[in-house]
Amino acid sequence: MSDFFSHCRIQVLLPLPLGGVLDYLLPDGMDVGPGDFVTVPLSGREMQGVVWNTQPEDSDVPLEKLKHIIRTSELPALPESLIKFVDWVAHYTLSPPGAVLKMALSVPRKSENPKKKTLYKLSPDLPDKLTPARQKIVGAAIDDMPMAVKTWTEIAAVGEGVVRGMIKTGMLIPVEVSGEETFAVPDIEIERATLSGEQQEAAKHIITQQRSETFRAILLEGVTGSGKTEVYFEAIAESLKEKTAQVLVLVPEISLTTQWLERFKERFGTEPVIWHSEMTPAQRRRAWWATIRGEARVIVGARSALFLPLQNLKLVIVDEEHSQTFKQDEGVMYHGRDMAVVRAMQSHCPVVLASATPSLETMINAENAKYDWLYLGERHGPATLPSMSTVDLRVHKLKTGSWISAPLYQALKENLENGEQSLLYLNRRGYAPLTLCRKCGHRFECPHCSAWLVEHHKWQRLECHHCGFNRRVPDQCPNCEAEDSLVPCGPGVERVAEEVADLFPEARLAILSSDEISSPSALKRMIESIERHEVDFIIGTQIVTKGYHFPMLTLVGVIDADLGMSGADPRAAERTWQQLEQVAGRAGRAEHPGRVIFQTYEPGHPVLSALVSGDKDLFLEREAESREAQNLPPYGKLASLILSGPDKGKVMDTAKRLSKIAPHYDNVTVLGPVPAPLAYLRGNHRYRFLMKAEGRVNIQKVIHDWLAGLPKHGGVRVQVDIDPYSFY
Ligand code: ADP
Ligand code: ZN
To answer: Is there an atom of ligand 1 within 6 Å of 226 CB?
Structure first.
């Protein structure tokens, strides 16, 4: 009896941030398997969920309390690899599985199969004798292609009655197709670039791994411009030989990769399927459906593409794997690169991590032979790596209100005279990071965040870069009412552009920052304009570090190489090195050799020494040693706990309670609670704990047990961030 009933108990996961699966009863005659979509009752409503387990073992809800599943769906089931992945991510990030499932189902009206259309194709066995009108239809057929009634009448120039008649007699057979436009299949026969020796070796290695159909992580390290993209295109082409194979390519910021898409189109004759958060609902639905139906063959997307229902995933590529944009800092806090490795593992396929500046995490995995390690040491063709030097700002002092030193000015001037392009890099949007009153010292601060307002000339406004609050730049100081007393302090890209315009009134400038670029198409226009050499000087924030290839760009000037070097972030030096190396990599990518100038007050800093000498190994080795000594990632584990809420007293109270019950183990250290560096953000007060643990500690369990002891804490949000990358 009990055996019989236990077969009727089904566990369903709903895309809601609840605890976990819910138990339901399977009605007589209904049959479901894991991954099937079902509609179930929940507090008087109907909801769609996914069958998670058909043979639950650990259920203690009595059978008589269970409700029946209402109905099943026509949807294809979610693949088993995705179910495992959702569970894995939920467990690792300490998130409710339903919240993770929600990411996998993030399509509007997912329950509806997009409208189906009926088309007709010729039957293979037609009678020998046909009327002339019917003969016209046969003559007009294009191979086996199904067509709408209207199309048949048009191309055969016959009346609709003729077509209808042939349908009735079975000479035209109906074919159901989805009403959505399908995606073109990438063409692997298009003639491609001939790979160099080292490129060929690398591609061969990846292809061998692919053929073995087992999981393998592969680091594809190559200097900027060495052809990493060409190498993994070759691997993609190999995967696509299998008719149903799907390939997933993760890129840091999809909307910023127009050049990448162009290259893909050149290589495969069609654009890949794109996935990112800024797509319209219709675009999302089309891509999601094409994925679950297996029609989407190559999907390129931001980190959230990891949760797409790929049916037959055969290869995962993570381009610019070092990029911090792979880390999601809200909701389910996961690292796209790390989860890509897990996704590949569960799909039994290789994952390629490509970068010119691999993360220390990946480097160490490669050194320990956990990952394979491919290296491309040369730029493609005649291009050579740029020469790098520093300008010591203690010697070459900047004039007040000026950010370009004499040596950098000289280099820019020469480059302009030679008709080549220059890039000035400063990772700061706007005109000035701080505005203050000369009379009383008043600073403009955001009312919702503990942050200064940044002046933007473009809009004549002061803006908070954390919450978006903004206000007009006033004529007088709001504190002392002095007139014309406000002064901007420090530079942003707008201010550097102003200086360049003063120095070179005849030159053509472009600012490349997210403020200037309102849409992907605006970015595309700007990139094309730079490619056509309609611009002499580009002044850009970190968005220019994203893999662009401008053949005429030969000089890169870094306005403030010291920016971002300090702070609470254990990866500050590593990240600065990555950013500077990447921006330097924009110089001299074609025939003309490039050079890079770093303006700095600390030319001896290990990051700059590594860049200038080209000896990054020494720098990374030291970085690794220092991380190991402090037991920081990738050696030790790190997690942060962020408490936030509008009522400061409640937040502090919860912090105190947590502090009292903090875990005590030899190999676990809990730091805090302390007010977060951004102690006030979007109207919420914030406190942080930081947990450091030895590598073998199950940090998830420690945190889980810790939080389980916390009494109700209404009005205070507790967020767990495993492997945090932001420390504000
Ligand atoms: P990376 O991704 O390593 O920075 P890319 O793949 O972007 O390098 O290559 C840099 C430039 O060199 C691109 O314009 C690319 O088209 C070109 N390139 C690389 N390898 C080849 C090749 N084997 N044949 C022709 N062009 C190549
Ligand atoms: Zn703000």
So the answer is: yes
